[in-house]
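Here is one chain, start to finish.
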Amino acid sequence: MNQGYLGIDLGTQGLSVIYTDSSLQVLETGEAGYDMVAGLPPGCYEQRPLDWESALQSAMNQLRDKLAKRGLACDVAAIGISGQMHGEVQVLDEVGTAHATRLWCDARNDQEAQQLTERLGVKMPKRMTAVRWAWSLRERGVGMANVQYLTTPGGWLALRLTGQRCLGIGDASGMFPIDQATMDYDRTRLADYDRWLGEQGFAGRSLLELLPRVCRAGEDAGLLNDHGAAILGLAPGIPVAPAEGDQPAALAGSLIGRAGFVSMSFGTSVCANSVGDRTFQGVSPAIDHFCAADGKPINMVWLRNGTTYLNAIVKLVGGWNAAGQPDADPFSNVVPQLLAAPADCGGLLALPFMDDEPGVEVVRGGTALLVGLNESNATPGNAARAALLSTVFNLRLGCNTLLEQGFPLQQIILSGGLTKSPELGQVIADGFNLPVTILDSGSEGSAWGAALTAKYRHLRLQGSASTWDEFLAAHASGSPRRFTPNPSAAAAIDRSFERYCRLLAVHTALEAAVN
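Its structure:
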């Protein structure tokens, strides 16, 4: 068998690996989990980097065992890495010793986000690593003197596997804004950031000294070292692609390299990422900005409240069997009812805010609810459909901001956990009134995107001159599932969306009443 490609995805709740053949067909997978650091206050989320490494070793053992049972070897030509963006990994030495890492979902540092957005004139969400670093200096200043290097979870894993302090440009853009002219960190804003730190009393090293080197897709990011080889159970010397963030990797996995196409992924958080044909103007609470793996600007509508709310509703309305015991697979009970429910959920509306939602200016969670229940619409299908549509509606609000600036939105490529019930693609198509495609690799999401970066690095080493978007287009094969909007369903959902906007407009009063 020809050599294949290894894709590693370091997620919020667990790590997965996939091994593909030379044409990127997935042969086997492996996975392992890890926990948050226990005992932290509400809204604080941290993980220990060494737990990620242990999970990687376990996942690789599982992968190799599966391959061995099929008589296949794990013969890897190149390795790609995807990781949860925005984490603040504080590295203390050359081998990667690190403090516990605050994750993208950690709710601290609102103040720094607001101050830096105003100071730098560009969206600096509280998730951004540079914003988190400012909080760390403010709150833990003495302990920060020993930090030698800042990176992301994916960048830390790459450091352990290669010894290199570099990062894919997409993941790097989640640490600090990128200058589209230089395809590197924005040096003007970096200088202003350092001045701002000095004004706050945090004078010291420039942030640039702590950041990883920026690499674009296909560029040199090092070779697997002895430590990495021992973790993966592979031979040293294998090329490793620049480690990318999960969102650029998901965009790659959706084979999107040009404007007009939206990569939409539903999970713990929900993202709609689209390649921009120009730079977004101004600052919007609904839109974040980063880069694709080749450096093109990306506009991201990001929601903190994702399928957690949908999962809770599904468990509530369909998670019990006839004997009153918890059902092992409530989704199998509820999804058919969701699909059969009327487009407008029988008049039900939902608010999904189990947590805060900066993009729609919901500052506190705990206000998730169903509105409009009556004897005729109180069904599992209506409740679950309303829960899913509430997330669709919040995404639409952000996408409308892009439409106002004239950014093209032509088609949705759906990936992530929702594709495990692919028929739900029809609900998304109707909800946005746009065609939806689910690729054969849709359920693999960012891990398959990481495998794509691995293959591109391998081809570049062999002398390939294809551009990143040409490379992605060449992999549009298989038998994707396609959904076109149903006009009557789309019209009914539009009316529900108008009602949802009116409900959202009174959310501030609701927050005040219940919190």
